[in-house]
Amino acid sequence: MKIDSGQGALPRASVLVRARNDEALVGRTLEGIFAQEGAPEFEVVVCDDASTDRTREVAARFPVRFADPPPGAYMPGRTLNALVREARGDIVVFNNSDAVPAGRDWLRELVAPLLEAPDRPRACFANQVPRADARETVRRDHARAFGDGKVQATWRFFFSLASSATWKRLLLEAPFDETIRYSEDVEWAWRNSRREREPVEIVYCPRARAEHSHNYTLREMARRFRGEGVSDRIIFGDRPALARELAGAARETLRDWAWLAPRPRGWPEIPCAPVRRLVQRLSHWRGTREGGQP
Description:
Spore Coat Polysaccharide Biosynthesis Protein SpsA, Chain A; about 40% helix; 10 helices; alpha/beta; 8 strands
């Protein structure tokens, strides 16, 4: 559903879709976006970052507008800021090309907190449900991070841009940091939720569901958690002791085993669980020690 030229009762929205080599999922994602019901009028802007597969060709089958990434080496904040400037809507919705809307009410539920209080600075993020092929330990992580939101509410801070929405005016007033390679979404949300004047309220929308998960290899996991460790040092000043990270790995392993025990499908993951958690925690610890970009 594209933005029309008339004045509607609701603010207009721009759904910004970043894509790279996502031929297998981008079609499902765009089909799900255009099937939304009861949401504000919207446009869809696709930014294809030099894909070498058929991602752009598949996306071109839908009534989308393409926007090129800024020239030079990829930095997520720089691309995001450029896309925000391209957006024609009052509301900016970020949705990765591999985050498939899980229902026709995803967009309506995601922007509802914005429309309920249009004068309040808010940023909303969706419930990310694991894909059918997700490992059981990945499912456990999603159940804790998303689900009904009770566990994430006990954490210091949590936000995910993969499927999220906020007002364009907030993003223009306070753009994304263009110098960090990981957790640019957390940095933006943390910085703006703590500002003295009109802090941004972070709202979790459990009924706005998008299918999004990754079965990372150990190498991919190490790279990601190292990068997040670097960013956590920049954002929060984190520099945890090695003993603390090892204790965290042990706790998570015990939780994994408790989750896997009653689920025969996940029994093959039992021996791998401690290795997975050690890679995560040690890579994060290494990143917090670097104090710069990985």
